[in-house]
Protein 1
Amino acid sequence: MLPLAVWDEQSRPLAAGAPLAEKTTAPDFCRQNVATIGDGIRLYMSINESLPEFPPLRPAARELPPALRPLVPPTPVPEPRLIAWSPAAAELLDLDGQPNPALLPALAGNGDWPGGEPVATAYGGHQFGVWAGRLGDGRALLLGERRNAGGDTWEVQLKGAGPTPYSRHADGRAVLRSSLREFLCSEAMAGLGIPTTRALAVVSSPLPVRRETVESAAVVTRLAPSFLRFGHFEWLAHLDRQDELRGLADAVIDRHFPRLSAEPDRHARWLTEVIGSTARLMARWQCVGFCHGVMNTDNFSILGLTLDYGPFGFIDAFDAGHICNHSDEGGRYAYQQQPSIGQWNCAQLLNACLPLLSERSETAVEIATGILDHYGPAYAEAAVAGWRAKLGLVEAREGDPELINRYLSLLHRSRADFSLSFRRLAALDSQAETPDPGRDHLADPAGYDAWVIGYRQRLRAENSDDAARALRMNAVNPLYLLRNHLAQTAIERAEAGDYGYTERLRKVLTRPYTEQTGAEDLAAEPPAELRQIAVSCSS
């Protein structure tokens, strides 16, 4: 039994050796020629000559076959305006903390990034458990990559820069609403210490874009060591292009897992690491109450990064069955399902990579099943350690999973605020014999009193010092999160031309564990009517 999938009454074991999906039959390969994209409003301009010191890029996505990474120029937008900027992300590219106005054309897709070679990449994927065929970068363009002074390589991508061959008759645009949410959450997750892609900037434009209503366009500049997804491997497997699948895997290993390059079983060892990093990422999500919303295989990073911020949400009032995406009518991606879905997605990756494991299909399945068996223990270890830290426990003891699950059950029954409940618990007096004042926010104070007796005993058993424990707990239990009502406030003010709230949020979210003077409103529980907001895929 895998402990702590979420909580005790309805936790479900992640079965070792979950079945691998049957390989799908590849249809005729859709032609990859770049669609003719007009020059739009003719704002395209080069900044190469005017900024010779501008950090150049190198072509990226060279791991992919050329046919699956066609060159695509970005489509310019009218009247671009820089409205959000991350100094921390800028440092990753050796850029100044303050944005240079001359960067605007490149960030908007209206000008060149020196040395860049814009490409869109093809990938497939399972969406809501069903094979969806070819997907690809429908509104994202990979401009290139840059190696910074520290030796780290970062790919630079524009999201919302116009149509690509994979847009499926869509406009290839992003709207201001979704762009600000992605920018803020990318940087908030980085502040939380959770592996994630990064967001450098958001550029707005009055260009009208139709979603549920007509909205204004925006372009997000995203960064990652690699934007490769499970779906890139699934698509090559779907096309039965085994040589190119092997080449892609070897290129990823050489670049991101170089210690495995010379190993004869490098593919099995690499996949074991990918499965482990994915399991640990799921545990990190659970511990901060993060719900992704669209955990399709094309939204899973081969490096274990949080990828693609669409209908995400941080839980306010704790509900283990919370669904943050109102399109997810069956609750496939509900909070309590995330660990199991992470495992299911890993099974699809392994299924795609069976040809890399053995020429004999039976042997390949046996090896893949053994690799998948690592998911459950990796998740359990990370989850127990994460929850234990949230309770301020230093030593590992046998009864910890039960203690943790009983507390989560109390929060669930009370619909108590998930994050603030752990922050309040840091103030508990472990030596007292009287009820803890923290009981007042719970609907089951008697149940809480009974739990606190065991918690205090557990703290005393390891001679825990309350002051030191409070520091430990506050260092892992965030006070500030990108709650949906805060993101919505930022959106509404930005739509009215006020971007100061977005910058204020960004600054506070970079230090989510530290109490900040003047930010009390950003730490407070949302009004009852604004809790548990569900958002759409266009959000």
Note: The CA atoms of residues 480 and 520 lie 9 Å apart.
Protein 2
Amino acid sequence: MTLNKPLRFVGRLVTLAAGLITALLPVAWSLDPFRLLSGAFVVDQFLAIELTIAMSLTFFVASAAGVVRRYVRIGLGCSAIVLGLLLALYFGSDQAFFVQPTPALLTGAAILAFLCGAALWLGSGWRMALLMIGVLALGFVAQYFGPPFNAVPVRLDRYLTYMTFGGDGFLGRALETIASTVTIYILFGAAFVCSGGAAAIDAVARLLAGRGKGIAIKATVISSGVFGMVSGSATSNVLTSGTYSINSMRRFGVPAGLAGGIEAGSSTIGQVIPPVMGAAAFLMADVTGIPYGEIALAAAIPGLICIVVMVQQGEALARRYETEAVVGALDDERAALSPRLLWHLLPLATILGVMTFGDRATELAGILGTVAALVVGLFLVGPKQLLINLRQQWPSTVSTIAQLVVAASALGIFVAVLALSGLDVSLTLLIRHLGEQSLVLSLLLTALAALLLGAGMPTSGVYIVAGSLLAPGLVALGVPPIAAHLFVLYYGMLSMITPPVAFAALAASAISGASFTETANAAVSYGWIMFVVPFLFALQPALVLVGSPGEVATSLLVATLALICLGTAFGGKTALRRRVAVAPAIFAVTLLLVLPSEPHWWQWAGVGLLAAATLAVAARRDMRPWTHT
């Protein structure tokens, strides 16, 4: 017993140190005063230390029954720390410039893969661990596939070495994104909660809830869309607004996975909402030569369609989950809003203001927003209570960061496999060939390629790659340049919510507590309109203001009428069996709306049939609420 006390004390110190390094190293790396860190270390050293310390923290804090399992976890955690130091020394030496599959590097790569898989199993579940193993195996055996999907031949030793020391894989850009920007915004979310900001937003949401159903969901769509418009980063937005919007939806009875999915989808669409549209729109102006004002104006109608449909869905979901008992209980708790709550807008305003200085200011905005939240907390809740809140929030915060860092490293394997095997390029080369036979088929393959290219990349990076590789092929097939570039931008950013990477869904799952798979599936299901709208304006370019004033007015009117009819048919209290019965008719009519035609009588015929189906459903409504079973 006497020996166990010092060991436990040392264990707590090591765990605390690992937590501090995992959480604060990205802040120091982003601030980097006078370039002290970047001048002495390379980014690979930073990523190696961040990853291995995060893995060790995962092993140290994981629960395990039995003495043997406990000592195994401790041994794995210590091994991760030693491996991190060795990797940092290697990347700081001249040998890192000439990567050769030596026995030492192969051993290090194998140990890193094993430790990452074990930490992923403990932190994110066995499904994620099996996904990493499956993708690793696929990347190697792809060389034995038949054309056009066969990869470049590679030896097993070179393949394993590349996954750790080749610039992608475990220490690639996927890890860099999570270990810098995302980590900083997790800290901001924790500081915002500790300062009382989340409680203030929750009070506002409860007050608004008394005026109608679905307010929490609708407010999430609108606020996340507006914030994502400025930030240009779906993941950063989730980790900012999601800290209160997800909890607000959960309070109204929305399941954890669905709440996270709604936040992830809403944050994603904000990246293409004018007038700001993040950094990607400015890049598009440079690539295409189209003035930025024209791009923002062209993106207005598709963005508005997505927002309107997602807001409409909030009403239907509210009737599923917001029972009268829940709303009534919340009505009893409503209190008058205090002007003091306005101070909680300061951290958000700080982030929005700093982000306007450019894409590189994203990390600085999160850091300054965190400082602003702590300052507001000092004045509103007091130093003592703020310290108590921070101590309570700290364990879950560092655990979340560690899990996301390990998951990002594993998901980086997916990006590396695409780059090494050339599967993404193979799909791109098929677009022109198949486009000669079917434009729709070509659009489908372009969408798939953009999703693959966008995996693990920020939106601006997605557009640089997808806009260069994919958009010219669509333009050659007759798609107007603005429609082609917006098409690849939409599907590139949708990788933020589409498995297997789905960084925005991954961040939302960490906040909601639901599984990554459940959250990503909910985000795709709730944000289905974002997958449909690009096909609408690719087949009907008038929706992006390409064409005569009459064509633009016709397409806009058709889209508006279709949205009203669809909202009436699928919203409100319409019974589930009515929705299932009308679904085939709605699908057929939608085809009439999007098929190119001269004159536009097909579109008007589609609107007429859709209106008739809507009236038929509305005339036979079930007046019972649509309850979830």
Note: Residues 472 and 484 are 8 Å apart (CA to CA).
Protein 3
Amino acid sequence: MRRRKVRKENKRQNFREKALVMEGTLIMKGFLILASVLILFSSCQHKNAEDETYPSKAQVDEAFSIIGENLTGEITVSCFDEEAHSKFLREAAAIFEQNNPGTKINIETFSSPAERTYTETEDGNLIIRKISSDEGKADYISRVTTELMGGKGADIYAMDVLPYYKFAEGSVLTDLNAFIEADSNFNLSDYKSNIFTGLSYLGGQYMLPADFYFRLIAFNGEKVGEREAAKLRENGAFTYWEMTDLVKEAFLADKDGSKIMEISFTDDITELLFGYVLALEEDKFVDRTAKTANFTDGKFEDFLTKFKTQADNNYFKPALTEGEGNIITNFDNPVKNTGYYFRSLVSVQLKDFFLGEALETKPNFPVAGENDKLLGLMTNDLGQAAYSYRKAYAINTYSNNKKLAWELLKFLVSEEMQTSINLVGLPVNSKAFEKVSKLFITENPNYSQADEEGNFTITGYYNLGSQELRQKLHRDYLNFLRDAEDKLSIGITGDTEITEMIKTESFEFFGGLKTARSAAEALQSSVSMYLSE
């Protein structure tokens, strides 16, 4: 046990000393590149899953003793994205402090809320333009890094932009598995455990998600027949390439300007669609655990070439590139309910497909077109689907009040906070998940349009049919979500440094600035170097 403590302290000391003599900068060239900032972590000693078992008995014993401490004192929660976290955290802090006299929760936010503009087109479509700046991310990451180097910092960090893997490897985040194992009042079976474990790393659970979301696919019933849809449904999963190949002949013969793919609520479909497909296939090219990259065996070049061919053939709305991969986005193109074969939507929009004609009064801004029919989740060739989060939190290893920090994390995933209107994403708490899904389907609240700060309020409830119909809709809705959960195993973290390297090189290829081979070779070199640091 003594040797374990010494080894762990050596890792921390090495993290502090080495990072002090190096500096990084964040380069913005169309896409966010985190690699240069993360040089700060390059000399950290990496954890080796073969050397230790996580959590160790010593870690569990330490967590057990911490859990037994009195609940008192003050902690600070730090987050970059004010819009994503502030209201939820401040609501939780107020309730928590009232329930636990003698405690104080401070909330620090770094960024400003995104600017929104609303434009209504002549044909009645609403364009919602959300403008948020990436400026300041580098400053925030640098500030947090400096804090951790000195063994200081906030007690809890929101892991929206911070380099999750590097922080986990640097022993500056607490392995929450030790607390989960030691705390008899925390039962993993009460939660969507796959959402937790999909974000684990090298055996450790270094952050706890408070919500999750995923993308699903609908098809246009006028353009994609049920026979074609059945072929995709028969295995319960399908890849992007299977989906586009299935309708390619019909698309090429179609003269009305339709696209194969549309993504709802985005201005730049190429960036988002590429990132979505990449998330499902990235493991073919990068093995973070083994610290190896594999970009030059031809598979990545084939991946890039196929995607560019689809863009050149107008499979989807292309983004224009200029200079070094910078994206010029046309904000005057409203989202329409026609002119596509498949559409990608976010899980929060799923309820529209189950309500359908049951609504006696219609939503003001329906996300499902008249011909939209639900297909399912897009997966990789192993049947795995990707998911992400807006709210996930980690405890600083150097926190002086881990007891209070852990109790607050538990409260954030409690049934009370998981049913908050400020959560936004799907709850990770199973009971809250059932309650929220029932609220959406059986009562169907009508939310007001978001104001400039992104706030929604319930202005009333849509009228549904009979109680029997409501119950059936709720069962169907839950069954779909439960089936979807089984496929959700690829957790996309806010730490996207390698993904952004891939996007940057890829879009230089798409813009004609590089060949597929040169992009692959550049990535093999840069990613391999990054993984070995």
Note: Residues 36 and 510 are 23 Å apart (CA to CA).
Protein 4
Amino acid sequence: MTVLVDGYISVINGRATLPQDCAKAVLERYRKTGLDFVKELRGSYTISICDDHRDTAYFITDRRRSRPMFSRQIEPGDICFSPEVRELLWVDDKPCPGLWAEAVVEFLILGASCDDHTLFSGITSFPQAAVMACSRSGLDEQRYWRIAFHEGREAGGEKELIEECHVLIKQAARRTLSAVHRPFLFLSGGVDSRILLGTLLEQDEPLPVVIYGTEDGDDFSIASTLAQRCNLDATKFSIPLKGLQDHFEAATLDADCRAETIDSPMASKLHRILGSEFGAFLNGDECFGWHSRGIENPAQLQPVDAIHAIGLRSLHEVGRLSDWLRPAARAHAGRFIDRTIADLVSRAGDVSPADLMDTMYYEQRMGNMLNAFTAQRLRYMDQARPFLDEDVVDFMGRIPVRYRYDKRLLRKLLDVCYPDLMEVPLATKDSIPVAKTYRRLFSQDAAMRGYVWSCLVEGLDDRLCELIDPERFKPFVKALLDGERLPGVRIPLWARIPGMHRFHKTTNEVSPVSLVLRIMQLNIYLASIRQVA
């Protein structure tokens, strides 16, 4: 019997586990309880158990799928596994699988994938909290846990909720610190990292602090002020906006093109630098509780708000992309995405839109987008996100929804437990490049314009040209780079009939600059695959 553990397990059977003892502890629990032991685990891991007696290999993912794993069935009884999609593209003498056109369009809309989708046909990702059993009969999936919310279930008064949340976050931080080596805290100006900062100071754990950003936002300066007030030496990285194109390829390949990373390409360079000094990063990340988006009462939310909150849109809501797609691709992708949305909503069952929103966050946005973004750091150091500790997540699932919404419980926790940290205002604007930043760079940076032009006008991949009509797409790119008026979106002939425009519902809910960046990221990725071939 062989046991391999990628990552760390902080708790097995209620006991803390040293990193060097994880595989041994897993083997002991498996021999004693079978696969039932997986419900006991806490941490960030992928486990493989090769049981010769059962002639079966088991792959086990943690409850948030924090570490990627993919499979490709080459032929019946022949399955390959890898933590990277591109490692599965070329297996022995088998041909590279083709692009999954509908999933590519989904990526362009969302900036990531949904469910187990990847960019390539026949390659799928492992789900959260899963035991994948691989035997001669094939691959069998069993889920040992799913996130659940219990709307309206009071877990106590507000004071008790704050106290319990505080205790669980401190426990999560202790678990994390015991399981990783040489960690540091990514400090921003928001709620989550501020609570982690207070927790670490309260436990007398003065971790090194790292702050990074551009001059376009306020979180860089606010995080610096927080570190100064706490007498912490902070390592600061100012993200330059000149020469970003030099880092586009590294950002694309580090993340295996599983999420949009080209919009903040300097992160790859930052991770390489930090990885030479540190072994792990603590990150508040995004936690439960969406910003109110102008809706103060969660009862006013609709199911569509949950879908929009994770960034997914129907194709008719992304008119600019729809305009670029070839007719057949537009029709197939539109139906595919509508089915995906319907499946996501129906699978969540009869829950409130606010609970659906957090379900979508955990299973889709965090499970696919945020994990894919943070996975690029795994090349250089480990990741640790105490807010996504299993017991913290279970607690969030049983508190009244009004406390999750807009992070109200966490904001109250800050006010009560760390009032001194709240003397510094919360950040309101991220210090990372965004769509309008690139719009400005296109007009100011000739090198950037030249790079985009060569990539998307002169060198658009043939496989993308099968989806995207160059006659519609390339004039838009040219106008964008030249600072000219952007071409209009095509209006269907039937909508031009007097009075019929009222029924034409196409909108532009995704920035066209973001769409251009995502197409460029895909183009870079496909070029790298072609070079390998």
Note: The radius of gyration is 24 Å.
